[in-house]
Design a protein that fits this description.
The protein has nine helices and 14 strands. By secondary structure, it is α/β, with parallel strands linked by helices. Strand 1 and strand 2 form a beta hairpin. The radius of gyration is 19 Å and the shape is globular.
Length: about 270
């Protein structure tokens, strides 16, 4: 029997790192080993070790979405720390990227079973930000690294606009209620750009006000969810007339397909 992780059982906690990174800490109080911990994209080992010691947890697995240093930089030190404690830690990551210390490499449709926290994820390939970027998806949540942000998407360092749009479409096709755990607090900057693209979008205006309030009180805007992003995120809305018109106005030319719209707004955002 596949036991899918229920968010009622799995607790997802943010560990803040660097300026605006989120390292996600997954635990499950209802599992046999309630103090087991799984980390997603631990770029900063010290922040993670502080979290582990404060909560008296045992690190059992690390999930990696892509090779950038702010996502993988803590792996070696965490493994050293774990070995001193005699903990066995499995490291999962993308098959199509060069990352040290991976035990299990993953491609689309692979399953990751984490009995330590009673969880199971399936893998999506999400090329665009990097060539081999992946996401970890359960029926209720997705850890999507730097592909989809609230109100935005990752920069195209290694992939093409067509690849990134296809990757974002995969995420956009997940159930509306899916909680989106991205790796950065970029929401406010993303929304100021989104409002430049769709100034008339009332859901976007409302959400921007809510996020301004949250951030003003020092609170996180993440997780977001797929349903909300479909309403407010211009990069998921390249087929919408309002986004297309705005992109055409910016490019000063007719754009015939969503990929051209996406490429236009992505380069507009790069210089925004």
């Amino acid at each position: 029997v596949k036991s899918y992780m229920s968010s009622k059982q799995v607790t997802v906690t943010a560990i803040n790192a660097f300026n605006d990174n989120y390292i996600w800490a997954l635990s499950n109080e209802t599992s046999d080993n309630a103090n087991n911990l799984v980390l997603v994209d631990p770029g900063d080992a010290i922040a993670c070790i502080e979290h582990i010691e404060k909560h008296q947890q045992v690190l059992s697995a690390i999930l990696i979405t892509h090779h950038h240093h702010d996502h993988v930089g803590g792996i070696a030190k965490l493994l050293h720390y774990a070995s001193e404690k005699n903990w066995s830690v499995k490291v999962y990551g993308p098959a199509n990227e060069k990352i040290d210390n991976l035990d299990i490499t993953l491609v689309e449709n692979d399953q990751v079973s984490l009995p330590e926290i009673n969880g199971q994820f399936s893998i999506l390939d999400l090329p665009g930000h990097t060539k081999g970027h992946i996401a970890y998806v359960s029926p209720e949540m997705v850890f999507c690294g730097d592909t989809l942000f609230s109100g935005g998407c990752g920069r195209l360092f290694e992939g093409t606009p067509a690849q990134m749009l296809q990757s974002l479409t995969k995420l956009s096709n997940l159930p509306d209620k899916t909680s989106v755990y991205c790796a950065h607090e970029y929401t406010q900057a993303n929304l100021s750009f989104a409002l430049a693209v769709e100034p008339e979008n009332s859901q976007l205006q409302e959400y921007a006000a809510k996020v301004k309030d949250l951030r003003g009180n020092g609170l996180s805007s993440i997780p977001t969810n797929i349903g909300l992003e479909q309403q407010i995120n211009p990069f998921l809305r390249c087929s919408q007339a309002s986004v297309k018109l705005s992109a055409q106005r910016h490019a000063k030319q007719i754009l015939n397909d969503p990929t051209a719209v996406f490429a236009t707004i992505r380069s507009w955002k790069d210089n925004f």
